[in-house]
Amino acid sequence: MPRICEREATIYSLDIIERIAELEKLVDESAISWDQRTELLELLLLQNNFHPASEFFSGLTLINSKNFENYMDEFIRDSHEIPELPRFMVLTLDYEALKMDYTAVEFRGQTFFTQP
User: Fold this and answer.
1) What is the residue extent of each domain of the chain?
2) pTM of the full structure
């Protein structure tokens, strides 16, 4: 599995868990590089933001703050039936209010939002 990148629009928690397992295997085999050790530490710090009983360990999406509005737009379109509006009406989402239902975590200097 490739390195987990902080520039991704979303990161899936099970990918993080899989990458940690790969890197820990390299540690056990004494075949880990300095960069991989750094990556392992960063991923373990990210994972430690979550309680062991949380959905992180069964599959959770971390949404890059730079992509939050696009992610919410797609989520609303996919999960709600929005009626046809007259041309003079506009539906505007309050993204800051939506963020109140999410928890922010930091990964390599980038903020990600996830549902607790």
Assistant:
1) 10-114
2) 0.86
